[in-house]
């Protein structure tokens, strides 16, 4: 049997080993002196931070170290005198400036030890700079992410499909740069919405977003709109002149929609602006420096147009720095139902009327090919929302072209198929007739019967 004193000795030995290991594992410098201010222990971190060795410190008093210039000011002397925790900056012979904190340790109400911790100020400054940089990056990322999420929440972007998730993951990176962006995709895929998202999540998000539809403005007028003009530049020009939209987009974004429609003459002028970032108004010889982010969009095959000489190759490579292709809605069917629900919620809020869409309708809309993409889908949802009297939107409320497209599907009952066909026939007959009464006569039914059926199917009849 082990005696009690042996056990105590064994436990004390174990405690000493643990304490020694803990002291040396600490990343802060630790220096311990006795009540006579003589150094009795220190750890490896202290020698690393101060540049001094154990031989220079162990057994030496703080007073000796201060006198021989090893340290600039002995914190232990002040701790013993004032009997409290003291912090100050010590300069060591090695030239290092160190933040030291001395703490008195008492035993039986008498000073027993003074424990001094040391932190290298250069390390502290480095850590502080790293922390500031991290906080700055974090704030910037949070700000960008907040703008990005808020925009997605409030706008029409739905990213449930893998294709859209990939595109939306690119936006924070694209927004940070100021290089030109080229948005490609069919009409109605949401290129303008994506352009606005890129602008609003960029550093110039508070600056103007200027949209120019290159296909909707005649060439001569488009030139003056883009580049501006001075007094007397052409017949009908304003006496005061006018800045072009390129100037108006200063520090913001210039969105050239349908850029493939830009006349060759203007392609040359735009290329010059992008090369020099200078613009010259019509009728002037003076150029002006400009700064803007260019975002272009088109549904036309620019590479084929280049081969035919309809689009300049040099301009294509200038605007095609960051290309993003938006897939058509038929290739991202995972986005259709979420978009329908989102649009319905928005319409319910706008009109103060809560309406739901049946599962059958969602099936039809999800499998439809949507040649007009998101724009067509949005218009269809708004139309049936407004035209349907009931709070539940069913198959009979669908436009005839969409309903007829699915009438042969085996997933629908005979009754549903007959309703779709009947509605389609009534709509066609009304188009061919000058009045509801004439249409009823051609169909061989009473006018009152046809009126009831029009109400049932949500068919609007002009008086």
Automatic annotation (TrEMBL):
GO biological process, one term: regulation of DNA-templated transcription
Domain of life assignment: Bacteria
Sigma-54 factor interaction domain sequence ranges: 157-386
GO molecular function, one term: ATP binding
Listed Pfam families: AAA_lid_14, HTH_50, PAS, Sigma54_activat
InterPro entries: AAA+_ATPase, AAA_lid_NorR, Homeodomain-like_sf, HTH_TyrR, P-loop_NTPase, PAS, PAS-like_dom_sf, PAS_fold
All residue ranges annotated as the PAS domain in the record: 15-63
UniProtKB keywords: Aromatic hydrocarbons catabolism, ATP-binding, Coiled coil, DNA-binding, Nucleotide-binding, Transcription, Transcription regulation
Coiled coil location: 117-151
PROSITE patterns: PAS (PS50112), SIGMA54_INTERACT_1 (PS00675), SIGMA54_INTERACT_2 (PS00676), SIGMA54_INTERACT_3 (PS00688), SIGMA54_INTERACT_4 (PS50045)
Record protein name field: HTH-type transcriptional regulatory protein TyrR
Source organism (scientific name): Cytobacillus oceanisediminis
Lineage: Bacteria, Bacillati, Bacillota, Bacilli, Bacillales
């Amino acid at each position: 049997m082990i005696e009690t004193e042996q056990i105590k000795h064994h436990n004390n030995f174990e405690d000493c080993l643990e304490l020694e290991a803990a002291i040396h594992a600490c990343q802060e410098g630790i220096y311990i002196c006795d009540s006579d201010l003589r150094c009795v222990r220190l750890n490896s971190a202290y020698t690393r931070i101060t540049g001094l060795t154990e031989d220079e410190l162990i057994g030496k008093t703080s007073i000796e170290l201060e006198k021989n210039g090893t340290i600039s000011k002995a914190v232990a002397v002040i701790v013993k005198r004032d009997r409290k925790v003291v912090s100050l900056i010590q300069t060591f012979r090695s030239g290092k400036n160190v933040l030291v904190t001395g703490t008195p340790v008492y035993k039986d109400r008498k000073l027993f030890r003074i424990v001094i911790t040391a932190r290298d100020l250069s390390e502290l400054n480095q850590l502080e700079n790293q922390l500031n940089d991290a906080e700055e990056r974090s704030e910037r990322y949070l700000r960008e992410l907040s703008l990005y999420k808020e925009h997605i929440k409030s706008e029409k972007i739905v990213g449930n499909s893998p294709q859209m998730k990939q595109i939306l993951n690119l936006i924070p990176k694209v927004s940070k740069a100021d290089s030109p962006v080229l948005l490609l995709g069919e009409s109605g895929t949401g290129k303008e919405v994506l352009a606005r998202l890129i602008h609003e999540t960029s550093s110039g998000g508070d600056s103007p977003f200027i949209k120019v539809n290159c296909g909707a403005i005649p060439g001569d007028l488009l030139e003056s709109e883009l580049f501006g003009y001075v007094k007397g530049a052409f017949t009908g020009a304003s006496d005061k002149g006018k800045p072009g939209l390129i100037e108006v987009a200063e520090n913001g974004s210039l969105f050239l929609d349908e850029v493939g429609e830009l006349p060759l003459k203007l392609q040359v002028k735009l290329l010059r602006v992008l090369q020099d970032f200078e613009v010259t108004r019509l009728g002037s010889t003076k150029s002006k420096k400009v700064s803007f982010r260019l975002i272009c969009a088109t549904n036309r095959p620019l590479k084929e147009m280049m081969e035919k000489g309809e689009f300049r190759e040099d301009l294509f490579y200038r605007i095609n720095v960051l290309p993003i292709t938006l897939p058509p809605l038929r290739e991202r069917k995972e986005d259709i139902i979420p978009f329908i629900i989102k649009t319905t919620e928005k319409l319910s809020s706008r009109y103060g009327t809560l309406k739901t869409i049946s599962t059958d309708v969602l099936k039809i809309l999800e499998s439809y090919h949507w040649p007009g993409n998101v724009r067509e889908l949005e218009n269809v949802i708004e139309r049936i929302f407004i035209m349907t009297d009931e709070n539940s939107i069913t198959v009979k409320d669908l436009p005839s072209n969409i309903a007829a497209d699915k009438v042969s599907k085996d997933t629908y009952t005979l009754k549903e198929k007959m309703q779709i066909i009947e509605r389609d026939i009534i709509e066609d007959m009304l188009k061919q007739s000058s009045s509801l009464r004439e249409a009823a006569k051609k169909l061989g039914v009473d006018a009152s019967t046809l009126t009831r059926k029009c109400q049932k199917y949500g068919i609007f009849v002009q008086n």
